[in-house]
Amino acid sequence: MLINIGYGNVVNVDKVVSVIRADAAPIKRMIQVARDENLAVDATCGRKTKCILVMDSGHIVLSALLPETIENRVTENPVTERGQEDE
Question: Which segments of the chain are extended strands (E)?
């Protein structure tokens, strides 16, 4: 299932390991390391990074949305046990 992470950018929610606020110093270091290793995907469209999505591939996706906003978008689209969205 794809989820909008802001400004027309989407990610596969099944590949997301965690959603973390980007304001702590260790997280800022994580972002810099990922950028140095070409594992960072910037989906902020030039805005301030408010959270990062850690993907199962080791990549991180930078988002300008708050983690709570992304959480709400995920919970608004419930998935049945068969993996299909409820209608």
Answer: 2-6, 9-12, 16-21, 40-42, 51-55, 60-63
pTM to 2 decimal places: 0.85
Residue count (the chain): 87
Residue 77 banded pLDDT, cuts 50, 70, 90: confident
Q: What pLDDT score was predicted for residue 78?
A: 64
**Residues contacting residue 17 through CB under 8 Å, at least 6 positions apart:** 54, 55, 56
Question: Which residue matches tokens 């997301």?
Answer: 16
**Is the residue at 81 inside a domain?**
no
Domain residue limits at 14: 2-76
Q: Please state the domain count of the chain.
A: 1
